[in-house]
Design a protein that fits this description.
Chain lengths: 258, 354
């Protein structure tokens, strides 16, 4: 498993508003790629175009292509539902399904897609929760509501839910921004562990986080409010944080920029 | 009052930060209320005022004046205004309670007289207005069948419309549907009855039946079910929908398995309120079911009765036996609707978001 993503000339719109323009980048398999940049620069938008979640919002559309192992996600005949089974996503705020237990949450993606085999489901519950470093904490209360967990546990539950459908790529949209430092550390450890099986793309506002967990970093920015965001620089994380090519990147990562 | 173990708080001279305030003792409102009632009674007996309602009114006004004055003097203007507003709120609450209590008391006291087993097991077959006895067996059968049929049609229909409006509808069509649902909400119930009477009963020639009554109730239920379900579906956070999509679950499945279950307690409450509302409808049932004294358990053919219809016909007869039957039937109707509400609340409480 794990898949390479090529983004070519990607432009995303919300209605008439051009949110982000002309993005080109390559995401290596079994790597962690971080998107950083100021608010409103379009990094979350780009992330959401990678599994066709962008178009879920009314009037949102995309130009350009996103190649998943050479196949264009926006090509004719592509089914967004199948795309999302291959490219999973974890959101900013933990969002376990409130009517479901911990166990049901983990296997929601499988069950809702018609998997009935109980042995397989049980196996996948344990496997996914272990994968999300949550098994030891919840193994005795799998039938309790998922919403009863702490924020950090809920986020790991959401990660377990995302990896239970066995995607190739995992997208994370600021997965730690609603969490305390200890839960954040738990998630970061988890990301490092998951890297061995998934291609991971993470959006973060926390530059220390980007430098800790990622192999490559993309810096997005925008000239002024109302302009579309653009990809300023994309390189190895070590290079972006120590010796960036662009002046704007250097200003941002060193904290001289708003 | 103070003991050795609980020392008095030390107040040295002035409170420099001005954090303390004088407060009236906790029993003051009760004492002032008692005083107001006594004073109002005195005025009632001494002056030529001769209405009992005026005692209540005067006591309320006296309480308001005395309490505000005492509070202004002791506690200052801000707390006095607070007490004034609090009093007004409680008064409004008590006023709103009066009709409910009055209806319950009069229906229970007048209806309990005929509430025996016979009343539930007999119809009005061969019983005239002057005769004792008789019962509501046929009316209960009619009401239950009509309401069940109406719900079986209106709830799925209304829920689907609500799902369309919230999850799929965009632009013109959904605005038009929304507008017509609003129009339908304000439809007088007798118009729904007239519509079914002229269209189903007369023009299509199906004749009076429990089913025709159910159709009229459907027209009244749909907008209520649509509106309440719509509001509940809108409350489901968008994040849950996105979480479903991001797992590669198709939209319709996400709606069916995630969105609707999350909104279900609220939807059930809304449906139950709609059911309670239509179970008390008289006019549309009168026009479409017609009413009968006999037991007819087939809702698809022939006249039926129903509880509101039974109350209407019995209360219209100037005989004590008939009027007693009407009160007892009214009590039964209220109990049925209250039970439905209770069941809905229990269900909604059990499934609340955790």
């Amino acid at each position: 498993m794990a898949t390479r993503i090529d983004v070519n000339g990607l432009t995303a719109y919300y209605g008439k508003f051009k949110a982000v323009a002309d993005v080109n980048l390559t995401i290596e398999p079994k790597n962690v790629t971080a998107f950083i940049g100021p608010s409103g620069c379009g990094k979350s938008t780009v992330l959401r175009t990678l599994n066709r979640m962008h178009e879920v919002l009314p009037n949102a559309r995309v130009e350009g292509e996103v190649l998943l192992d050479g196949e264009d996600l926006y090509g004719p005949g592509m089914d967004p539902v199948n795309v999302r089974r291959t490219v999973g996503m974890v959101f900013q705020r933990p969002n376990p399904f409130p009517t479901m237990s911990i166990r049901e949450n983990v296997i929601a993606g499988l069950k809702l897609n018609g998997v009935r085999n109980k042995a397989l489901l049980d196996e996948r519950v344990e496997e996914s929760l272990r994968g999300a470093n949550l098994w030891e904490e919840v193994k005795d209360r799998l039938n309790r509501p998922g919403a009863g967990l702490s924020g950090g546990q809920q986020q790991r539950l959401c990660i377990a839910r995302a990896i239970a459908v066995e995607p190739q790529v995992l997208l994370m949209d600021e997965p730690c921004s609603a969490l305390d430092p200890i839960s954040t550390l738990a998630i970061e450890d988890l990301i490092t562990k998951l890297k061995s099986s998934f291609t991971i793309v993470i959006v973060t506002h926390n530059m220390q986080q980007a430098s800790r967990v990622s192999d490559s970093t993309a810096f997005f920015s925008l000239e002024k409010t109302g302009d579309p965001g653009r990809l300023v620089e994309f390189d190895k994380t070590s290079k972006i944080f120590s010796n960036p090519t662009e002046k704007r990147t250097e200003d941002y990562v060193s904290g001289r920029f708003g | 009052m103070s003991t050795a173990t609980a020392p008095e708080p030390v107040v040295t001279g002035e409170d420099r930060l001005n954090l303390r305030g004088q407060t009236l003792p906790r029993w003051t409102p009760l004492a002032v209320a008692a005083g107001s009632v006594v004073l109002a009674l005195l005025i009632y007996f001494v002056t030529p005022v001769d209405s009992e309602i005026q005692i209540v009114l005067m006591a309320a006004i006296l309480f308001l004046i005395a309490m505000s004055a005492a509070s202004t003097v002791v506690e200052g203007a801000r707390r006095a205004r607070d007490r004034f507003a609090t009093t007004l709120v409680y008064t409004a609450f008590l006023l709103a309670l009066i009709p409910l209590v009055a209806v319950l008391v009069s229906v229970i006291s007048k209806g309990a007289k005929r509430l025996d087993l016979d009343f539930f097991t007999h119809s009005m077959n061969n019983i005239g207005a002057r005769d004792a006895g008789g019962g509501i067996y046929h009316a209960i059968i009619g009401t239950v069948e009509q309401v069940v049929i109406a719900s079986a049609i209106a709830v799925p229909f209304g829920l689907l419309v609500a799902i369309y409006l919230v999850e799929y509808g965009q632009g013109r069509i959904s605005r038009v549907i929304s507008f017509f649902v609003d129009v339908l909400t304000g439809l007088p119930s007798i118009i729904a009855g007239l519509f079914v009477l002229s269209f189903w009963v007369l023009a299509l020639g199906f004749g009076f039946s429990g089913f025709a009554g159910a159709l009229a109730l459907v027209v009244l239920m749909i907008p209520t079910v649509v509106r309440s379900s719509e509001e509940m579906l809108k409350l489901v956070p968008n994040e849950l929908r996105e979480a479903g999509y991001a797992l590669g679950v198709a939209k319709w499945r996400t709606i069916l398995k995630v969105v609707v279950p999350t909104a279900l307690p609220g939807i059930v409450t809304g449906v139950m309120l709609a059911v309670a509302r239509v179970s008390g409808e008289t006019a549309p049932v009168l026009l479409t079911v017609f009413g009968t004294n006999l037991i007819n358990s087939n809702p698809f053919s022939g006249e039926q009765s129903s509880l509101p219809l039974y109350i209407y016909s019995q209360a219209g007869q100037p005989q004590q036996f008939a009027i007693d039957r009407a009160w007892a039937a009214a009590l039964v109707l209220i109990i049925i609707i209250m039970l439905l509400n209770l069941i809905a609340r229990l269900f909604a409480g059990r499934n609340r978001l955790k």
